[in-house]
Amino acid sequence: MSSEKTWTFLVRPVERIGETFVRPLWLLGGITTMLVKTVRLSFRPPYNLRGIVKQMLEIGVNSLPVVLITATFTGGVLALQSYTGFRRFSAESLVGTVVAMSMTRELGPVLTGLIVAGRAGAAMAAELGTMRVTEQIDALETLATNPVKHLVVPRFLGSLLMLPALTVFSDAVGIMGGFFVSTKLLGANPTTYLTRTWDYLKVMDIYHGILKAFFFGAAIALISSYQGFNSKGGAEGVGKATTRAVVLSSMTILVSDYFLSAWMFK
Amino acid sequence: MNSSPETEPLIRIEGLSKSFGSKQVLNGVDLEVMRGQSMVVIGGSGTGKSVLIKHVIGLLKPDAGRIVVAGQDISTMDMRGINKLRRKMGMLFQNAALFDSLPVWENVGFSLKQHTKLSGKEIKKIAVEKLKMVGLSDEVSDVMPSDLSGGMRKRVGLARAIAVDPEIILYDEPTTGLDPIMADVINDLIIALQKKLNVTSISITHDMTSAYKIADRIAMLYQGKIIEVGTPEEIRSSDNEIVRQFVSGSAVGPITVEVMRA
After folding, report:
1. In what order do the strands lie in the sheet with B11-20?
2. Looking at the predicted structure, is the pLDDT value of residue B194 above 90?
3. Percent of chain A that is helix, strand, coil (3-state, to 5)
4. How large is the average pLDDT for residues A194-219?
5. Quick check: B54 and A138 CB within 8 A?
6. How many angstroms away from the CA of B56 is the closest CA of chain A?
7. Residues of A in contact with B93 (CB under 8 A)
8. What is the pLDDT of residue A266?
9. For B81-105, b where at least 16 C-beta lie within 10 A, e where not — what string?
10. Across the interface, do B59 and A144 touch by the CB < 8 Å criterion?
11. Which one of A260, A265, B33, B114 has the largest count of C-beta atoms within 10 Å of its C-beta?
């Protein structure tokens, strides 16, 4: 008995260190497994159209006001700041180009992603987490229903489809915000501004931004669902799962954004 | 329905072991339940009673041992097989585990909606019927679960469990958290359903009043093993000190000693 205690005493710190390194791998493995399951089940009938539409409303339509307001002011501040900078070397006419490129390539998808992660991702983790700790997910299983198919697939597809849509709105409204600030407040010529915007903006800029949005949408739904599914320990556990879902989704968006940009715009 | 005596138990658990992390919860559980029988597993909180019945419906995979239900070993079955078997089973969860995004009738008819081609109208009709069986009027069918009292939630949970006309029903602490009268209503319901539907059931509880009332046989789970099985009468007059302490609800006895040492 006492030798066992000594053994535990010696091994525990090593276990702790090991855990620190193994935990992220566990997480990655868990989320990957969920991705594989979700994609496979997405193609298997019956298709839960009602569930998908409900999630599209929740994720897409209900996030729209926040996305629009954020994008308007982001476009505006971009115009304001780049105007100040560009004036130093008399390149004010390029403000429109900078706003359009920044919005479509980066800020449109990234800000939309962060908003959806904070709104819909948190809701997903909290809802699924509550279902987990109140045994509703177990109940689904006892009713011979696959909980991933029933709960994760609609959220995954809803998020995957709505993020690009929101991004398009965000792009458009951001450009309008920049246009408004430049022409009404900074005295730029509207015609020149729009010409500069259209001439230098490539379809590829928009397209790549939308591609990013698809990726962010999938990541938010998977990470948040995974955290919800694996929450335990009552209200506190659900709270922690929700926090982790938002933090991890946001980090994934910002970090992967760099690598996606480096890969697509090389 | 099936009164011919059978020698083969409908549910047979053999050497079931399960641990979570370093905590050994079940350590070689053996239990047999004959067709039509009501088995009640008693035991203290945290002794793994819930873990035990979650194995029977395939929510947990055993570390070792077998769970044979209707001649099929659940522990080696794939998801499809388990789900097929689950459609003959119903489970009442401790806090009912109703889907709070769905009104009562959709909760009750959930399985029918998932697995049959019945229309919404037909499902609702069946759901109302099942609600009637557990003593609820059709007025509650459109209520959301969050607006129900604890006893009503349990009854709706029961209606959901019997919606597919199961052969086996599992009850996870059916009377816990209810006032004594409501607890007795649930006990009567369980007995009535047992008679009417001729189901085989496993209940877990630490409520001895309920156990004596609904059980054909009682099994006591202690330290990961079944230490005694018998009729309610046999359990009531058991020589085993642990069983005696538990059923009489005394704080003094071998169980307390164990708790203190742990």
Report:
1. B23-33, B11-20, B64-69, B72-73
2. no
3. 90, 0, 10
4. 92
5. yes
6. 10
7. 135, 138-139
8. 66
9. ebbebbbebbbbbbbbbbbeeebbb
10. no
11. B33
| Higher pLDDT among residues B130 and B3, named by residue | B130
In angstroms, the CA B204 to CA B196 distance is 21
Q: Is A15 on the interface with B (CB under 8 A)?
A: no
Nearest to A75 by CA among A99, A92, A94: A99
Q: Per residue in B2-47, pLDDT tens?
A: 444 557 889 999 999 999 988 899 999 999 999 999 999 998 888 8
Can you give the residue ranges of every domain in chain B? Answer: 1-86+196-262, 89-165
Q: Does residue A183 surpass a pLDDT of 70?
A: yes
Sort out which chain B residues have CB atoms less than 8 A from A232's CB and list them.
none
Nearest CA in chain A to B92: A139
Q: What is the pTM of this model?
A: 0.88
Query: How many angstroms separate the CA of residue B161 from the nearest CA in chain A?
Result: 8
What ipTM does this complex have? 0.88
Break chain A into its structural domains and give their ranges.
Answer: 3-264
* Neighboring chain A residues of B22 at a CB cutoff of 8 Å: none
Q: What is the pLDDT of residues B216-231, one digit of tens each?
A: 999 999 989 999 999 9
* Tens digit of each residue's pLDDT (9 = 90 or more) over A37-59: 999 999 988 888 999 999 999 99
Query: What is the model's pLDDT at position A2?
Result: 65
Which is the CATH superfamily of the domain at B1-86+196-262? Answer: P-loop containing nucleotide triphosphate hydrolases (3.40.50.300)
Give the type of residue at A124: M
Tokens 């099985």 appear where? Answer: B229
From the list B199, B189, B204, B167, the residue with the least C-alpha distance to B93 is B204
A window 135-194, beta carbon within 8 A of B: 135-136, 138-146
